[in-house]
DNA sequence: TTATCACATGTTATCGGTAACAACATTTCA
DNA sequence: TGAAATGTTGTTACCGATAACATGTGATAA
């Protein structure tokens, strides 16, 4: 492995000039710069990040703190993880996965935090002494990255209204967190705007629980019912309930989900959903955190992704495949 | 952050003695050792891994090289990834995710390689100049970690025979790779041993393709047919085909999968499968690679995990839930 | 012409560790 | 008893980079 000194020797300059070419190229004359760059290319130079970290008093480690109790098999977090990992990697930062308990182990340059609940702010987040970004909207003024949750359910609700449904239910997760309140708000707002009466139900984020609840709500009564679900997991349960009741999907019952991470595609029929580009969001989150670190930890602002409506067989017979 | 020098000052010894207490405690007198350890505790000492990496000429980076074209949303790889990440993290190694194209970017101390196909050995794996471990069995004599694929399909096939099925098909993936051949072999061997005629079909690892193929094979003919599938993805397709044909599962058609990573649980009915403890396997893989690196890269041998049969509704009406 | 300044480049010290060797004390054994 | 072996601790140099400062050059202005 070639080092700074090797390049310096080859280009007949000092180590410092080589270092400058890398970090402050404008401070080196064009002539020497070219010499050095050529030498670097010829010797296939790769900087030693450990050395740089040492002298800059950095760890080159970013922690991903997942506060929610999570199932490691959950594709949602796996996608987030890989998005972050890919981006950090590009900038030669390492990712350390930590939880509530292990969060203090080892040093780091910054954190990405997700899965926070109301109680976590006082206890954990307010106490942070490093730059961080929250993955998920919050109303405490902390920098975050999220999808526009309210617009997401607006899109699905409007879609169902367009299809002619009059009875449209909302199946949410029983958490009073900003993302959930926003999804419920998007639904309520759209229903009111169309003069329809909202009916909201809240439950655990589980397909089985949702299936039971849906079985009750879809029985008899109205021949055409649609359900706006706050997650694909819940939507899967509702689809199953519909099939079990012998309802024709999407004519007698239409269902929309939220997330668009894997689950939507393995259901049968496939689920119309709001796609959150989690991998991309993870990348952006990492990128913004690094930027925040490099600018000394100053506030960097929020980033809200536009939600994307993916139409599938749970609402339309032959959707345009893409 | 306290450093070696801080500890040394506090304990009134030299830096070197502190370093020895950490790396070669037997070379330091019990008296001084205690002094140093106390100082370390009091100052809450955490070693600087960048500095150590620098002086030991290590990168503290392990690459995970995935040769197979992969869907990043695939829970299988996500589990592997997180298993490896958790273990590496414990030893303060960073994980870098690379593919065929990006594999040469950046330096590393070792690699975990997976998804290799026959052609990859000459081109890539034989040329490696760092210690590595393959995730997945191979017949080239390279160290690997895998589940016992042959025994896996033996277990599922025997299970179906026990249930009284006489016509038992095998749905495999159309790859002539060791893991696939082993899964086919486990099936064939068990069928022969019971005097039953094997029928093998090979296809793309896709639930839709499997559904089409199963639709053909499950129609008419035999009132009771079972299918041993080489992946849960294929099994999901077969289950759907069975339901579409109006067959009663598990009486008229029974299906087993392979992998036990998420997919098996979201199917309805849930799928009897061979569980591969991927997260645990990833951890072990990382642990063995580090061991291999520390012992200078010498061969370390293979590790084969025992497969575990998980019985669910696709083969038994009311399985014992656990 | 010469003091001053800006700019380009080199020198030195340093980050936090560890290896190699030196120095000293203590045993061991002829 | 004293030379050699052994064990414990300290000194020095170095890993590969960068910051801070020092030096040297030519241009500019008084």
Question: Could you give the count of β-strands of chain A?
Answer: 12
Describe the strand arrangement of the main beta sheet of chain A, using strand numbers: 2-1-3-4-5-11
**Mind telling me the CATH class of the largest domain in chain A?**
Alpha Beta
CATH superfamily membership of the largest domain in chain A:
Response regulator
Give the second-level CATH assignment, the architecture of the largest domain in chain A: 3-Layer(aba) Sandwich
3D architecture notes:
2 copies of one chain form a homodimer. The first copy, chain A, is about 40% helix and about 15% strand. Chain A is α/β, with parallel strands linked by helices and about 325 residues long. The radius of gyration of chain A is 25 Å and the shape is elongated. Chain A has 3 domains: about 5-45, 434 Repressor (Amino-terminal Domain); about 60-145 and about 280-305, Response regulator (Rossmann fold, 3-Layer(aba) Sandwich); about 150-275, Response regulator (Rossmann fold, 3-Layer(aba) Sandwich). The first copy, chain A, has 12 helices and 12 strands. In chain A, helix 10 (about 230-245) links the parallel strand 8 and strand 9 (about 255). Chains A and B meet through helix 4, helix 5 and strand 2 of A and helix 4, helix 5 and strand 2 of B. The structure holds a DNA duplex (30 and 30 nucleotides).
């Amino acid at each position: 492995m070639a080092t700074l000194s090797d390049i310096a020797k080859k280009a007949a300059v000092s180590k410092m000039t080589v270092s400058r070419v890398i970090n402050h190229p404008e401070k080196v004359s064009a002539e020497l710069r070219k010499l050095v760059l050529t030498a670097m290319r010829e010797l296939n130079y790769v900087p030693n990040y450990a050395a740089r970290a040492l002298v800059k008093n950095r760890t080159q480690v970013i922690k991903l703190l997942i506060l929610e109790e999570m199932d490691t098999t959950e594709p949602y977090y796996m996608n987030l993880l890989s998005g972050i990992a890919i981006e950090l990697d590009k900038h030669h930062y390492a990712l350390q996965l930590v939880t509530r308990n292990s969060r203090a182990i080892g040093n780091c340059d910054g954190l990405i935090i997700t899965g926070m609940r109301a109680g976590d702010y006082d206890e954990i987040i307010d106490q942070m002494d490093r730059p961080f970004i929250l993955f998920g909207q919050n109303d405490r003024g902390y920098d975050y990255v999220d999808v526009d949750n309210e617009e997401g359910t607006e899109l699905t609700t409007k879609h169902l209204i367009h299809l002619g449904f009059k009875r449209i239910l909302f199946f949410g997760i029983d958490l009073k967190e900003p993302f959930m309140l926003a999804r419920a708000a998007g639904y309520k707002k759209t229903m009111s705007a169309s003069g329809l009466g909202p009916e909201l139900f809240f439950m655990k984020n589980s397909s089985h629980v949702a299936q039971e609840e849906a079985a009750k709500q879809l029985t008899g009564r109205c021949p055409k019912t649609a359900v706006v679900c706050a997650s694909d997991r819940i939507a899967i349960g509702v689809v199953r309930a519909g099939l079990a009741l012998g309802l024709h999907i999407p004519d007698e019952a239409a269902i929309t989900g939220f997330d668009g991470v894997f689950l939507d595609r393995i259901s049968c029929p496939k689920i119309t959903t709001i796609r959150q580009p989690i991998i991309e969001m993870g990348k952006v989150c990492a990128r913004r955190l690094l930027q925040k670190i490099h600018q000394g930890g100053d506030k960097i602002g929020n980033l809200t992704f536009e939600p994307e409506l993916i139409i599938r067989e749970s609402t339309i017979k032959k959707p345009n495949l893409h």
